[in-house]
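User: structure tokens for this one?
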Amino acid sequence: MQNVSEAGENLAQDVEALGEKAGRIRESIGRVIFGQQSAIDETLITILSGGHVLLIGVPGLAKTKLVATLGHVLSLDSRRVQFTPDVMPADILGSEVLEESDAGRRSFRFIRGPVFCQLLMADEINRASPRTQSALLQAMQEYHVSVAGERHDLPRPFHVLATQNPLEQEGTYPLPEAQLDRFFMQVNVPYPDMEAERRMLLATTGADEEEAVPVLTSGELQHAQRLVRRLPVGESVVEAILSLVRGGRPEETDDADVRKHVAWGPGPRASQALMLGVRARALLDGRFAPSVDDVAALAPPILRHRMAVNFAARADGVSVEQIVARLVERL
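Assistant:
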């Protein structure tokens, strides 16, 4: 009984400590990123949950800056790949080269690609060919890559933060559903409000600019990710997650509108993502357990890329966002 009590006290202390550091992380990021608090929080939740993020927004909304800042604040080894149609899988994963020693012996040496980092920014991922996009699948899901039949483990933690421009779709390759499902969240990055844009103008056009400062080490981040999985989840939250996800599947729901408008619904990865995400959201706020409100808040970024509407929905002007909002209302 004493051990259980001690474990509870340690968990409470860890949650309080992480909640305090979360405030410092937000403050540090806020020095250089203005008016994107929801995008920042959703990205932090994803990283705490050990997942990958797809950031979607028009040019100039600090998507690249956000990724670079997160790498600095969380003390992660960061790399950036600018995706274009001519980028090949070897440009991401690495390749083997033939070397000859002074004694005349030849051997192959593996040269690691940019994927061997802790935070990989895949800039404009939808501009790469499907072959190159699929090269990330194994790395994102299994945390290792195979080159010439040899397995190469990636550093831990490992996160992919990909960006996508919703404009100028000529020459792009939409991500397949299998790869979209690998992303923990799809974070839509909006325009900043007027006050945030005013602060940005004053802060970024002067002689001196603020800089973010490191708050967590890589080891502390991994400890926080383990802490997320230790946080207890109430039965009401579990039921809300199951109701939300299963309610979005046309084969299983009792909602006539979902059956009419949804082509396919979210799979089990959506449930897993919500289960981890609500815990991470509670931890960021310094709370000891998630609530149904956390489920409702995370439903849009976790479900919007794991569902698709059919032709009837498009004809009626019904979007995935509207379907998700309807499912949330039912909670």
